[in-house]
Design goal:
The chain has about 90 residues and is mainly beta. The protein folds into 2 domains: about 35 residues, no CATH class; about 35 residues, no CATH class. Helices cover about 10% and strands about 20% of the residues. The protein contains 1 helix and 4 strands; from the N terminus they run E-E-E-H-E. A two-stranded antiparallel sheet has the order 1-2. Strands 3-4 form a two-stranded parallel ribbon.
């Protein structure tokens, strides 16, 4: 599951109007845009494990209009670059 889902469940912020989920959350040293949970939805939270896996290569899809630019950008990294068909 993508960790970005937590940006859809920001608490302790007020919506601009009922049904509006887009908010700007102010923290002590910075602020960011996020989305609060929909009206009437309460999250169910529990402890869980979290894993982080290293990126070992970059894949560029052949036939994409951006293949050449993507491959050039990927080759600027220190990771191996492979072209795939899908």
């Amino acid at each position: 599951m993508c960790a970005g889902v937590w940006w859809e469940d920001v608490r302790d912020v007020h919506a601009l109007a009922p049904g509006i989920r887009h908010v700007r959350r102010q923290m002590p040293g910075f602020d960011y845009e996020a989305r609060r949970a929909p009206d009437g939805v309460d999250g169910q939270y529990r402890q869980a494990f979290f894993a982080s896996f290293p990126i070992h290569r970059l894949a560029v899809v052949k036939g994409s209009p951006k293949t050449t630019a993507s491959k050039a950008a990927a080759q600027n990294s220190t990771l191996p670059v492979v072209e795939v068909t899908e």
